Amino acid sequence: MLRLICNNSFSIVWKCNRNMLMSTTPQIAEEVSKLLDLKAQLENREENGCSHKLILKTPKGTRDYNPEQMALRLGVLEKIISVFKRHGAETIDTPVFELKDVLTGKYGEDSKLIYDLKDQGGEILALRYDLTVPFARYLAMNKISSIKRYHIAKVYRRDNPATTKGRYREFYQCDFDIAGQYDPMLPDAECIRVMSEALQMLDLESYLIKVNHRSLLDGIFAACGVPQSKFRSICSAVDKLDKSPWEEVKKEMIEEKGLDEHIADKIGNYVSQSGGIELITELRKDKELMRQSAAVQGLDSMELLLKYCSIYKVLDKIKFDLSLARGLDYYTGVIYEAVLCGDGIDVGSIAGGGRYDNLVGMFDNKNKNVPCVGVSLGVERIFSVLEARLANKGLKTRTNEIEVFVASAQKNLHEPRMKILVDLWEAGVKAEQSYKKNAKLLAQLQHCEENKIPLAIIIGESELAKGEVTLRIVSSREEIRVSRSNLIEEIRKLLKTS
Amino acid sequence: MLRLICNNSFSIVWKCNRNMLMSTTPQIAEEVSKLLDLKAQLENREENGCSHKLILKTPKGTRDYNPEQMALRLGVLEKIISVFKRHGAETIDTPVFELKDVLTGKYGEDSKLIYDLKDQGGEILALRYDLTVPFARYLAMNKISSIKRYHIAKVYRRDNPATTKGRYREFYQCDFDIAGQYDPMLPDAECIRVMSEALQMLDLESYLIKVNHRSLLDGIFAACGVPQSKFRSICSAVDKLDKSPWEEVKKEMIEEKGLDEHIADKIGNYVSQSGGIELITELRKDKELMRQSAAVQGLDSMELLLKYCSIYKVLDKIKFDLSLARGLDYYTGVIYEAVLCGDGIDVGSIAGGGRYDNLVGMFDNKNKNVPCVGVSLGVERIFSVLEARLANKGLKTRTNEIEVFVASAQKNLHEPRMKILVDLWEAGVKAEQSYKKNAKLLAQLQHCEENKIPLAIIIGESELAKGEVTLRIVSSREEIRVSRSNLIEEIRKLLKTS
């Protein structure tokens, strides 16, 4: 019934076109308008699903989560939320789509990846690309000047994803952000601590947190002779160093972004450097760099940040890396990114963030800013890593929490089963039965073992007549007789010990 | 910076148009194509946000949830999930959008409310309208023949919502469904029990569950002389009886749907009836109706359902209501709907569902069906009711879970504060500090009282020198001296008792 046959509207369109060609010129405008209407109708028809077979799939770059995957995912999210709550975050939610204008001009080169909704009359909308811009819009709209919030929700990017590497077009982000006018680096260092605690909680073997500062990068660009108008686009190029070799990035700087070769080489010299606190000392000796106030300010900030990271016991995870640039336009201060190392699976960056002090102001009529810093965890990649690990170990997770299965040993006992069930439910016990009136006892008990249900109640006519039931401990197959009136109590006792 | 000025592209378009009018006919097709390109560019420009001011709002029919609302919402969802789990449901998730074809032909008159995504090259997509159709698609795609699952997620409808009544264009649904070939009414009765348990859990004062059966409705329509081709559209008309008086519905049947007046009157006679088990006995006496096998089958099913509902202790909540029709096309058996009564707030239907045995088959190449029955809770309306109630009582909810605030009584003690903080976090204690180095002590303590944080640690130079801190119980303002080495232990003790 889904495969209706379209009228061949093309022929109508072309007939109309020929008529148009024969008519006198003043009529052309009208005919063009008709043509456009017909074309729109035709497109509409096609979208309504005629003339092509129904393909049974999820949209490109998306996936369903089955119960096993959901159990894993909810476990991961719960751990992350516990870290966010340990740091005092409240949570908010925003709509999955925003007015298109809200997203425009925030993402630089990545804007082309935004999903637009169709104009069906009314507002022009687009799916959210991240949780940061909606957060900034929320702060400006509600005139909130300080908040510490987490937000876990799906975001959308029309990327060409390598789904094998855990990249999707629809994916969850877990964001923690601190907004407010505060003393330098106190919130920033806590964000790094939060990121580190979350990764630690997830037991992801070794990870490394790269940190850098946008002001320091700007200072470096200035010291190398990059004109200020090209700072952001050169920053974008540097950002590609985690995926491409320097030679390619250099080529982009020269050929696409019009930099002189000797300037590119100077930049290459800087961004190849990384280390710890000693790198700060090293850079302070660079007189050319120290003439740039942005660089001085960036280094001072980095020094304070690393000191706080040491107090917060995360310094051993940190690498001060001058090649870290972050793609998005809105960062203004410290930037950081966590990468997994080891574990055999290359998933690249799994968390990142930084300071964005001017984003809220872009939504305020008087440009009033609220300084913000935050971190975003890319949990899809974490799921992929954990799924692969579970698959390797051949482990299976329980996907429901049933405590008691109510079985019957003879035919036509479904009503007594139901009477027991409702008592269990009213006592808050998680319980189920077969939806077949006369399921075989063996099948019922097998269901219990396969699904790791701890207890089974087995009823038979003779026991019922005596006001008793059999209670079976599924794992040991041990069975005891229990009086109907003690049943709930007995179950509670056994569930505690099992 | 968001208010760029558009070039007046209109003038380009019209100039081009005039050129076109002057050219010879063979060139017209080419010029039309250019015109279309320019038009597309212009549209693109407008969508990219130029020439109109940024309006700071969420899209029509949507809303942000602030931390207080989120706390309430998460509490409600947790209760609902606990009911679903008590009945053994696992959970799945599906993408927020589907191939448009998946949604086509499933929703009858409501299809016009589907949100389409823009065709940006690639697949034609639309936002999900409910969770039932994606569930059926999931079953067919993965060849699953039995599952009991819950799914809590947002769905999208381009309705003209009365947001004051808790109706939105983006809203959460909480669905519980049982799929599989089972014995009659066993899963159906459990769905009604689940709906009732969930509403009971939410403490929503009195509610009523209307039940009916699509076969019985079909039998009634046949007995009244409605031609079979009009069953679904007459069913749609009956569905409006909860909002419109009979006179209006009758008018729709006669004028829009072409029914004879005497047939409409006969229908009116039936659908005005409601009651309990006795209504079944009454209807069985109706010889004309009993000639319709669909009606006999519907009544038999209703009788069994009500018997099971009695065992499941929900019969006192149930009203057998012949006017209940449910709007969606896909129902094939029992249908039900819960309405709130009393509480002073008119929110209408807050949950509903029914049996849909043919939906999965629509996605299967060989039309293989998986019978399903389910219930969907409309939590937005429940949130509205609970929010109104909280507002009436002037109650405020805690929006974070901080247990300990680390304060300092003198200047420049932020580093010792941070050292204590990191110990607390590593011990799993939920703790925070001011992000200002030298916040006033009074302000810090006020923050604790306002946010109902149970404990505060206060550090001062002299205590630090002695290896001690002050621990303050915020509610009683009682303070004790604790040695730094016993701090965590002492806090755990106090948190247990407070």
UniProtKB/TrEMBL annotation, chains A, B:
Assigned keywords, A-Z: Aminoacyl-tRNA synthetase, ATP-binding, Ligase, Nucleotide-binding, Protein biosynthesis
Domain Aminoacyl-transfer RNA synthetases class-II family profile: residue ranges:
61-386
Reactions catalysed, as given in the entry:
tRNA(His) + L-histidine + ATP = L-histidyl-tRNA(His) + AMP + diphosphate + H(+)
Offer an example of a GO molecular function term for this protein. ATP binding
GO terms, biological process: histidyl-tRNA aminoacylation; mitochondrial translation
Quote the record's binding site residues for L-histidine. 130-132, 157, 173, 177, 326, 330-331
* GO CC annotation, single: cytosol
The Swiss-Prot or TrEMBL record describes its family as follows:
Belongs to the class-II aminoacyl-tRNA synthetase family.
Report the protein name in the record.
histidine--tRNA ligase
Species name: Camponotus floridanus
